[in-house]
Every structure is written in structure tokens, then in C-alpha cells.
Amino acid sequence: MQKFSYHTHTNFSDGKNSAEEMIQQAVELGWKELGISDHLIVHKNIADSFSWYSWKKEPKIFHFDFNSIYDSFARHIEDVRKIADRYDIKVRIGAEVDFFTYSGWLDEFLKFKDVIDLDYYISGNHFLFVDDECNNIIDIKDAAHLDIKEQTNCIKRHFKTLEEAAKSKLFSFIAHIDYIRKIPICSRFDFLEEKNALVKVFAENNAVTEISTKGLRKADDFYPNKDIIKQLMENNIKLVISDDAHRIAELGYNFSDAEKVFTDNNYANRWFFSSKNK
Ligand SMILES: [Zn+2]
Ligand SMILES: [Zn+2]
Description:
The protein is of the alpha/beta class. The chain is 36% helix and 15% strand. Helix 5 (148-168) runs parallel beside helix 6. One zinc ion is lined by residues 7, 9, 96, 124, 244.
């Protein structure tokens, strides 16, 4: 049984528990390793978005520019490292990054990555790009405000962006690759061409992705769904189990079900930080 999670959130972003509570719970579970990956969401035009009415209620999560988050991330890292020192567990501090493709974003992210001492980054995309340049984004839950043609284009851009994130090789793994299935026109039977292309890009770039039990909490299947997991396994993509825990009760949530997917498919190509990695 996998006894760690690298995809978790604390109250530094949208989690319900403090880093210390999450660490204590991981120790309680008998884990020797925990990764904390709070959201890193920076988009220059978020205040112009149709979805700003709901995002502005979450000032800890949504940011206009990287300069505004240097101090808070530096403090967060320092705080968590101090806490982690008191427990018998290896704690890695990372971030779940929304990968944006507008001009200038990548340079700012690379600069942030240079200055700020995080252990790892995962990519998790949560938004729809309303235009090709990603100058305008909206929340997936607001997709219904777009017509079907626009939704279709947004979904295609979403999968393309995941491809770009994989090709960038900046991320330890790519999270919840069919998160967008929340949109009704993106069921497990839709956008198969895009999903196939994504798996192919993962294979070509040695990208890693997760089997997230958050899907079981929110819907009736893992993120990604079992059809995609099968394809990932056929293409020998490295996989890691995640809980995307936002509270202590979600740490290790249903990991036994995810383990069963590995054993049922006789699949052993799993990803974890190697001991020499840190
Ligand atoms: Zn996410
Ligand atoms: Zn997450």
C-alpha cells in the first residue's frame, strides 16, 4: 500500500487544516513521507474574468502577479519546515500550479522557481481558456455560460495545455488530467482524440500522472477515469496515487481502491521521489 501522498492542501491555500495537523495525521497513518502542494495560481487578468465574482472570495488562492506571492510562499516554506523538524516524517513542500500560456507567464514562473525554495511542483489545471492566448480564463463551473462551440474549443485548449505542461518538464507530475469531465459535454466517451493525443505526449516526454481518489469523493470514478487509466498503463506511463486531500480525513482516502487498480492490471510502473532526489 502506498503510504504517502504528494498532492495535499493546507489552509495556506484552500485546505481546511493547518500544515501541522496534516503532518500529525500522516504520522498517525504510519506514513514516512508527506508532500504539501498548496495552490499556486497567478494570472494577470483574473479580475477581468467572468468568474471573478466567486474567486475574489478566496484571496489566499487567486493572485494577479508573482511579485505579490514571494513573501507569503517564503514564509510558508519556513513555517512548514520548522514544524516538520519536530516530527518523524519526511515532509516535502511543493505547489500545485495552474500552467498558463499567455506571453510572459512562463518567464515569471521560472524566476519564481529560481528564487523560492520549493521541493517540487505539480501541474493542476482548473480553468477554461476562453481565447487561444489564455488572456481570459473562467472557472469550469461557469462553463455553462459559454455556448457549446465555445465549450468545445475550451476543452480542446485544456487538453492542449496539459500537453504543454508535460512537454515543459517543469512538473514532477500532472494532476487530475480529466478534471474537465465536470463539464457535461466532456464525458468519458467524449474528446477521445484529445485524450489519446495527451497520453501519447506523456509517453514521449516521460511525464508522470496521478490516480487521484478525489474523483471517488466527488464522483464515481478516479481522476482520471478507468478508461484513461487503462490507456496510461498500456503506454507504460508512471503513476502515483494521490488523495488531493483538503482536510485530514482525506489523507490516504480510498488508497486501497487505487491499489486494486494496480494489482488488477498487474501494473508496477509507479512514481515516487527517489531517496537521492532530496
Ligand atoms: Zn487540482
Ligand atoms: Zn489539488
